[in-house]
Design brief:
There is one protein chain. By secondary structure, this protein is an alpha/beta fold. The chain has 17 helices and 18 strands. β3 and β4 form a beta hairpin. The longest helix is centred in the last third of the chain and has 29 residues. The termini are far apart.
Length: 543
């Protein structure tokens, strides 16, 4: 009997032990705030989703710098994405996997190939795009599993958006210990980078080998983090895909941003900051749909931005890190210049004259064409440069003067045809498609001539299979493998070049510069249009 009883007790004890230990498919990591438990994907990559990196910015913490998250004692389950930031459905090509939407949105997601915390792998921290009014780290195009299979710890980060992320107000500035307001979304990103420095070793990552990256607003964010003294020492390399704040969504003065905040408060009937904080988040979000709502811009607040980012870069005071940067061949359509007019020489000349006045002849000299096809292409080039190309060029040009290597690309692979089931969809505002009836309706656009804004994301991150909208071909997978390998090499070494890849020359400060043309036939090319960017630089009012 004693033997049987002992065996029974041993069985119970073993059972309890088995329950207490994490299963093979439920890996754990010990962060400074407590233990998190994630999931082992079929590929063997370990994922931890919805990990808090700051306290929920709700109640009195609405419109405040992110605060440290509270510790927990139990094992925290991190097996699903956290909520996305407050945002309206403005871009039809955003596929969220988030746990709803909430002000309580400051979570990040980690994908790691490391089997233990003894490894020291390179780290990628990716900021999503969406014009600072939409987007989320759960979107499948940013999924980190594919990068993790390349030997990289990949992270996506949520940050506050729109009025919640970038509103300034005199009362906010007055209550701030730093006498600053507006840049809460950027400060969220900085808080996430501090979290990475403190915790990434627990996931097998090396805090000394962090690369920050992003596309569109995410790319602008990378340039912002490079400029800010609060964050420029928290990473070792940077990747920018389409855009920098040296021209795209630049910060305003704090006074201007504060006045926009005052106007918004008046618009929603709030007589004080306390009343603004007492309003439900959904009510504030709904108010931003009003066409009269002012734009919530980042600001030169004397804290995150001690002075204008342009002045910081021109003085060489930004992060001195290797930079991989570029833009797409059709960032904007020729209709952005010509409107509904036919692409004739006469219409194009009139359109440029309307845009540039007495400097139109200078623009027509460097953006020139005669045939309809040539006019369509040069108008496409001008539209794209006005939108994104110039600011990205300026970023690369100024960073190349630091002595750190800069690798510039032009991405030109046009997406293939849509799958049959997506045949009735219309082009989306962010370069994708609108199929959902809840998304903001958009006017049909002319067929793309090249790579539209945001088209490169799935290719660069190795996530073509996650996008079911397009009928991907072997050539698309070839382009994706090449581009992802360049990115992976850069994340690991600061140099994108590697075995089996066409040589990518670093940007030279001596003209003519070389860049990489990424398409089915990826190849280095010599810059032909520096005169365009020098002219736009000369004409820029954002100095």
């Amino acid at each position: 009997m004693k033997t049987l009883l002992s065996l029974s007790l041993l069985t119970v004890q073993l059972g309890i032990t088995a329950i207490a230990q994490p299963q093979m498919d439920s890996p754990r990591a010990k962060t400074v705030n407590g233990i998190v438990e994630g999931t082992t994907e079929a590929s063997g990559v370990r994922s931890f989703k919805g990990v808090p990196f700051a306290a929920p910015p709700v109640g009195d913490l609405r419109w405040k710098e992110p605060q440290p998250t509270k510790n927990w004692t139990d094992v925290r389950q991190t097996k699903k994405f956290g909520p996305r930031a407050m945002q309206r459905a403005v871009f039809g090509d955003m596929g969220f996997r988030s746990d709803g939407m909430s002000e309580d949105c400051l979570y990040l997601n980690v994908w790691t190939p490391a089997k233990s915390d003894k490894e020291r792998l390179p780290v990628l921290v990716y900021f999503y795009g969406g014009g600072f009014i939409a987007g989320d780290g759960s979107e499948s195009r940013y999924d980190g599993e594919s990068m993790a299979r390349k030997g990289i710890v990949a992270i996506t980060v949520n940050y506050r958006l729109g009025a919640f992320g970038f509103m300034a107000h005199p009362e906010l500035t007055a209550e701030s210990a730093n006498k600053a307001s507006s840049n809460f979304g950027y400060l969220d990103q900085t808080a996430a980078l501090r979290w990475v420095q403190q915790n990434i070793a627990a996931f097998g990552g090396d805090p000394k080998k962090v690369t920050i990256a992003g596309e569109s607003a995410g790319s602008v964010s990378v340039s912002a983090q490079m400029a800010s003294p609060l964050s420029k020492n928290l990473f070792a390399k940077a990747i920018g895909e389409s855009g920098s704040l040296l021209g795209t969504l630049p910060p305003s003065s704090l006074a201007e941003a504060e006045q926009n905040g005052v106007k918004f408060a008046e618009q929603v009937g709030a007589k004080s900051l306390a009343e603004l904080r007492a309003m439900p988040a959904a009510q504030l979000l709904e108010a931003t749909a009003n066409p009269k709502t002012p734009r919530f811009s980042s600001a030169i607040d004397g804290y995150f931005f001690p002075k204008s980012p342009m002045a910081i870069f021109q003085a060489g005071e930004q992060a001195q890190v290797p930079l991989l940067v570029g833009w797409n061949s059709e960032e904007s359509n020729y209709r952005a210049v010509l409107g509904q007019d036919a692409p004739t020489a006469e219409n194009y000349t009139k359109a440029v004259q309307k845009l540039y006045g007495d400097r139109a002849d200078e623009v027509l000299k460097v953006y020139n064409g005669s045939s309809s096809e040539a006019i369509e292409q040069v108008a496409t080039d001008l539209a794209g440069d006005r939108f994104i190309g110039y600011s990205t060029w300026k970023w690369a040009d100024l960073q190349s003067k630091t002595g750190k290597p800069v690798y510039r690309y032009l991405y030109a692979r046009a997406r293939p045809a849509m799958t049959p089931e997506m045949g009735n969809a219309t082009p989306g505002l962010a370069g994708g498609v609108v199929k959902s009836t809840t998304a903001t309706p958009v006017k049909p656009q002319p067929a793309a001539r090249g790579a539209v804004h945001s088209a490169e994301i799935e290719y660069a991150m190795g996530n073509l299979p996650g996008n079911k909208v397009y009928a991907w071909t072997p050539d698309d997978y070839k382009v994706s493998e090449v581009m992802q390998n360049y990115f992976a090499n850069f994340i690991k070494t600061g140099n994108p070049n590697g075995s089996g890849l066409p040589k990518w020359p670093a940007l030279s400060t001596k003209a003519p510069a070389q860049f990489l043309h990424i398409d089915v036939n990826t190849r280095p090319e010599t810059e032909q249009h520096r005169d365009r960017y020098l002219l736009l630089d000369q004409m820029s009012t954002r100095q």
